[in-house]
Amino acid sequence: MAEVIDGKRIAAEIRGEVKQAVDELAAKGVVPGLSVVLVGENPASAVYVRMKAKACEETGIKSEVIKMSEETTQAELEAVIDRLNADESVHGILVQLPLPPQIEEQDIIFRIAPEKDVDGFHPVSVGRMMIGDLTAFRSATPAGVVELLMRTGNDPSGKRVAIVGRSNIVGKPLSVLLSQKMKGGNATVTLAHSRTPDLPAVLREGDILVAAIGVPEFVKAESVKPGAVVIDVGVNRVDDDSTEKGYRLVGDVAYDEVFEIASAITPVPGGVGPMTIAMLLTNCIQAAREITGVS
Amino acid sequence: MAEVIDGKRIAAEIRGEVKQAVDELAAKGVVPGLSVVLVGENPASAVYVRMKAKACEETGIKSEVIKMSEETTQAELEAVIDRLNADESVHGILVQLPLPPQIEEQDIIFRIAPEKDVDGFHPVSVGRMMIGDLTAFRSATPAGVVELLMRTGNDPSGKRVAIVGRSNIVGKPLSVLLSQKMKGGNATVTLAHSRTPDLPAVLREGDILVAAIGVPEFVKAESVKPGAVVIDVGVNRVDDDSTEKGYRLVGDVAYDEVFEIASAITPVPGGVGPMTIAMLLTNCIQAAREITGVS
User: CB distance from A167 to chain B under 8 Å?
Assistant: First the structure.
């Protein structure tokens, strides 16, 4: 039976550190500011944005949410980003994804000033992370996974890591972070995906297994090395009439059966999710320090 | 006994395609132009620069080599790059690495206009490659390895690939290219390195094995799965008094013993090396097309 990794508690610990950093900056006259842009009515996006705003409030980061209609044009959204790029009180800019279909997502991400790219999705951030630049913004979910491992005594150094899922926001950047010659890295990483033959055998090689494929309960016990540390990045809604909302959240891991053989496992919710928001806050602090030159 | 992969022949094939593309562009009034900046007296760098200039000449790309002294300052080199960035007849800029110690290499790479970054080392190029942007410049050596595999009937799709060496110019970007959901990708890649425990066992998992660790004859037969395709990216000088130059070139693979058990292997020299230069030329064509809008 696995130890349950308490992402909520660790995220709260990080938020405490962020609050202290905010207080120190405030004493020097700097109030870190985050602007979140929400386009359209996607209900999950609205929930995430509310959670981010709340976390900012708790830690003293000044946040604003700019809500734009579902019919927003490319030019209108670009104009908002240009204004935020130029606004000296804004240190971090986050455009909540996904965007409506009439918007060219990559062009929007590319338009954010790289020094304010707290989501870490701009090619400059991704490229700098990839070449091992420690000052790069690490995108929040992969950074949260690394932090979760390090703060639970599961340093990936010298371990084998199997990741399933090669997305731009989790699998690919995480494979680089865990491989690199730096603190939180030095693992031997295998990046597996939907086209990997005999996937269970490949995943069983991992002393640490990361599931980030976006399929409910995809990783069964047969894919887990006994004693492995299992990190579940997935957040999937599955219909469940027995709940008030009509759905429940499950991860990419078949929790109950994997719980029996892993040495540690993250729950969904309450595992990686809270870490993602906590790491976003640390990126905001980093942006405020770098832009103002106050540390 | 392995089939020897003839990188020279395949590179010549690609140069032929480049020449045709140059002729087509020339008919439309565009002459692709590459500027190579060589700082100092590193003899290996001088050789590489000569080879690149020669390949340009053969294919009709207009090249110039700007030689600067070993004592060049950061500001002097930056001024040259700024001039080349602004020069409309220059479509590709390549600063030969390594640079003398007084120069901050990353700042120089960052200063090259991303649309002229034919080496693919700028964070924007690396970031765009990483997120699967097909229009990104792929750095020449990783792109050359992918091309070599594809043109010898060794499509990595569905295969396991083991890479040893996690450098910014080979191991890390190659692991991404081979993993991605695109032509030349879809492999399951493990990125191994100096901190990987039981390295031979990990490398033996590879249907395709890529050695890019920069240590002469590092990969022995015990690290090779029988029947694997072995790609040797290493180019190391080892002392050899029996030769005229006093040294000979060897790869990162113990060629003679691995030759016995691999199904295919690249020689050093004559394997990946010529491919690197060929891919640089294709990047120059791409740059000229994108900058001029003529295709």
Answer: no
**What does the pLDDT average to over B255-278?**
97
Q: Does B160 touch chain A (CB under 8 A)?
A: yes
Output the domain CATH number for residue B144: 3.40.50.720
Counted domains in chain B: 2
Instruction: Confirm if B172 and A176 have CB atoms less than 8 A apart.
Output: yes
Tell which residue, A157, A145, A176, has the closest CA to residue A252: A145
Which chain A residue's Cα is nearest to B205? A202
pLDDT digits (tens, 9 = 90+) for A8-27: 999 999 999 999 999 999 99
Q: Residue B207 catalytic? A: no
Q: In chain B, what residues touch A188 (CB-CB under 8 Å)? A: 190-193, 195-197, 202
pLDDT, residue B28, reads: 98
The predicted-structure confidence for B174-233, as pLDDT tens digits, reads as follows 999 999 999 999 999 999 999 999 999 999 999 999 999 999 999 999 999 999 999 999
Which tokens sit at B236?
């190391």
Q: By residue range, what is the domain housing residue B36?
A: 30-124
Instruction: Judge whether residue A295 has pLDDT over 90.
Output: no
Q: How far apart are CA A215 and CA A165, in angstroms?
A: 10
Q: What is the edge-to-edge ordering of all strands in the sheet holding A92-95?
A: A62-68, A33-39, A92-95
Cβ of A179 within 8 Å of Cβ of B168? The answer is no
- B295 band by pLDDT with thresholds 50, 70 and 90: confident
Domain harbouring B60, CATH code: 3.40.50.10860
Q: Let me know whether A150 and A258 are in one domain.
A: yes
Same domain as B85, residue B35: yes
For residues A176 and A114, membership in a common domain is answered with no
Whether the CB of B132 is below 8 Å from some CB of chain A: the reply is: yes
Mean pLDDT of A225-248: 95
Q: Are residues A105 and A169 in the same domain?
A: no
CA angle A288, A50, A113 (to 5 degrees): 35
Residue in A127, A179, A141 with CA at minimum distance from that of residue A157: A179
A253, A153: one domain? yes
pTM beyond cutoff 0.90? yes
For residues A221-231, average pLDDT: 98
Collapsed DSSP state (helix, strand, coil) of residue B183: coil
Q: Which residues of A, range 91-110, sit inside 8 Å of B by Cβ?
A: 106
